[in-house]
Input
Amino acid sequence: MKRYRIAAIPGDGIGGEVISAGVEVLTALAKRQGNFTLAFDHFDWGGAYYKKHGRMMPANGRDLIKSHDAILFGSAGHPDIPDHITLWGLRLAICQPFDQYANVRPTRVLPGITSPLRHVKNRELDWVIVRENSEGEYAGVGGRVHQGSPLEAATDVAMFTRAGVERIMRFAFKLARSRPRKLLTVVTKSNAQRHAMVMWDEIAVEIAGEFPDVTWDKMLVDAMTMRMVMKPQTIDTVVATNLHADILSDLAAALAGSLGIAPTANLNPERTFPSMFEPIHGSAFDIMGRGIANPIGTFWSAVMLLEHLGEQPAADRLMQAIERVTADARFHTPDLGGRARTIDVTAAVIDALHGANS
Ligand code: ATP
Output
């Protein structure tokens, strides 16, 4: 019997609600499968912790989770704390030192969900966006001087390294090759950004040479937004920089029906450190505590977590259960135009786990 230890970090806002739903579903699934166990350790890091301790996580926080098999993360953000503190103090404080350089975001229109794109059918929108997650525009390089004076100046330098670009390109080509269409779009902006983005393009060509069976093309990020809306069926796997993919994947989540559904994985492909799985949405304080947060994004993230652990049959069972539940409008939360509550969706997925695959 395999035993996995999972670090659960609910964070802020609706993070607590969706992560407790995720833990419930994963626990039921492990019991149903019977060939592995999941032990969860809970960490109360985030905005409330910051208010008490002046930091988002303890100084030895990473030591406490570095031996876990995976991390299930909710959301970090607090109305009273600047976003750059909550982001850099928790999520990025884990992602960067744990070298989770590949951020993977699948997007599909699940059964029963309506895309805002008229006429789009389920299979016509089936994408995976790979986001470079360790450098680029969010490398943290820059500075601010002469604050409060008219001479004040600030810079954010986008830093791209050959090693960083090579590894994300290789990861994306590999992922594209593993999918049926073997199709990759490399997003760029090398017309306006003539240094790093030109290197990005050159490295794409080099790495493409290692993957002759993958069909690929290159697209400027502005044109890519149009293509996502106008010709979604021409896209399969996408690789883009930290900033570009951040924006494109929110667009993708909206086109798939709701931010509440979309999952993401922050992967350390070499497995030197644990990888982290989280819904794409933020802390959504406007609906916090009302019991109406859509937990599907967390459940789908749990599917990715199980795939990463190598528990493919369990991952397939959970995905089928999710699709069964989204197909039934009685289990749509208000963000999907329904009236279901978080607990209704959670209970329905657990019920479906027992039906799916059996
Ligand atoms: P943050 O600052 O942490 O990114 P935010 O509130 O600015 O958080 P999101 O949480 O990403 O941004 O969400 C934007 C809106 O989408 C929310 O106000 C909420 O109404 C809706 N939303 C997001 N996630 C969910 C969810 N899981 N279920 C239901 N509605 C959601």
